[in-house]
Amino acid sequence: MGETGKEEYKIQSFDSETQKLLKTALKDPSNVDLEKVANIIVDQSLKDSVFSKEAGRICYTIIQAESKQVGQSIFRRSLLNRLQQEYKDREELRTRSLQAWICYVTFICNIFDYLRVNNMPMMALVNPVYDCLFRLAQPDSLQKEEEVSAGRAADVPVVLPRTCKKHSPGGAEKPPLLCAQHLLFLLKVDCLVLQLHRIGEQLEKMNSQRMDELFSLLRDGFLLQEGLSSLSQLLLLEIIEFRAADWKMTDAAQKYYYSEVTD
Amino acid sequence: MSFRQRSPHGSTRSSPQHPPRWAQARKRGADGRRRRQNEPESSAFEENKPGPEDGRLDSFTTPEGPGPLSRCLDWGTAVEEDEMRTNVHKEIARHRRKLLINEFSRERKSSSGSSDSKESTVTVELETDEVVLMRRQKQINYGKNTIAYDRYIKEVPRCHRIPGVHPRTPNKFKKYSRRSWDQQIKLWKVALHSWDPPTEGGCDLQEICPVDLCEMETESVGSNSTESQTSCQDNDDTCSGTPTKVRHVDYQAEGEFDLEVCLSEPLKEFDTVS
Predict the structure, then answer these.
(1) Is the ipTM of this complex over 0.95?
(2) Does residue B183 sit within a domain?
C-alpha cells in the first residue's frame, strides 16, 4: 500500500508499527490478532475525527479479506461488540469528552454506512444509531457545556456571526468568534447533518417513525433555540430541506446553500 | 445426554464434568474462534452471554423490519443471525430454481420416450418457515463446523461419494417432521465421526474403510473415468477448502440426483445444475 492506500484509509495518524499491522490485516488477516486490530481501530476513531469519518472503509476491507481468506468473521464480531460496549457507556463517554462522543457517533454511522449484510444495512445498528443522533440533537446541552476543547474549527468553515449578545451581556465588543457554547453546539449540529446526509435515506427506510421524531426535534431546535448562530441555523435548515426533497440535492438548494452569492 | 448449561451472570466459563467427545473435535469455539486441536473446551451449549443488563426488551420489532428480532444482546451475534437469515432466503430461491430446472429436464427425457422409474413428477412442498430453516441451518453448521467434516470433504470429493456409505447432509428444504429431522441430523453427525482425527482411543478400522471403498469405486468406474474426472475437476474447487453454506447449496439441491444418474449422463447433468 503506497501513499494512496494510506490516504484512502486515512491511517497516517497511526505510528508506523500500527500501520504495518493494519496493512497486514488488509492483506493477510488470518495472521494477525483481529480482535486487537478491531480495538485499535475503535480507539483511534474516538480520538481522530478525520479517521472516524472514513474508518468504515478499512473495516469493510478487512472483513471482506477475512471472509475470503478463511471464511470467518472474527474481526466483524470483535468490532461490533466493542462498538456495543462503547454504546452502553456512551453517557460516560459524552461526559468525559464531547469530542470523543462526536467521534463515536461519526464512527458508528460510518460503520452503518459501509458494513452491510447481503446488501442490507445491519438491522442491529438501526436503533443504536437513532439513539445517538437523538442524543446529539437534544437541545439541553447548549447551556451545560462550559469548556471548549481545542477548536475543531479546521473541519468547520468559520463564518463571522453577529456578535454573541446572549453570552456577552452588555453588548461588549468582542472579537467576532463563536463563543464556547455556540462552537460546541455547532460541532454537534455539523456532525448531525453530516451523518444525516450520508445515511439518512437508509435509516429512514429502516424506521421512518423515528426519523419523523428526529426531525421534529430538529425543527424545534431550529425554531425555538435562542441565540443560535447563523451557521447552525443554516445547517439545520439545509438538512430539513434535503429530507423534504427526498434526500436529494435540488438545484435551488445547491444555489442557496452552496454557491457564492453576492447580494 | 444433556449438557445444556447457562453460566451464571458474571461468572467465567465453568467446565462441566465431562465434555462430550464431539466437542473436542469442534473446529471453532462458541465465540467463532478457531481452536487448536487439543484445547479442552466445554460443551457447545454452554452460554457465556451475560443476562440482560439494561432494562431493554428481550426482543424488539422495527416497523419496517422482517419481524421480531430474537433476544440477542450481542451485536456480533445479531448480525451473524441476520446474515444467516438472508442467506437462507437466497438459498430457498436458488433451490426452487434448481428444482424447476430439474423438473424441466425430466420432462424432456420422459417425453423423448426413455422410461425412468425413479422420477416423481409430483411437485413437492418445500419447507419455507424461516424459523425452522434457521434452526436446521444452525444444526447443519454445528455438524460442518468440525474437524471431522473438514477431513471428510477433503478426503472424499462430492462426485466420489457413494450413497448409503458416505454421509450426506440432510436437505433442509424438504418437509420433515421435527423428530425425523433431528434423527437425520443425529445419524449424519454420528456418521461423520468416522473422520474424526485420530486420538488414543481412535478407531483405525473406521478410517480405513472409506478409503478402501473410494479406491474400489475408481476401479469400477474405469470406462467413465475420464468423464467423471473432468466433472470432478469442476467440483474440486467447490469441494476443497473451508466449507461455506453457499457452496453446499448446490450439493443439497442435488438431493434429487444420485450417483448413477450422475455417472450415466455426467456432462449434461452438470451443465444444467452448476
Answers:
(1) no
(2) yes
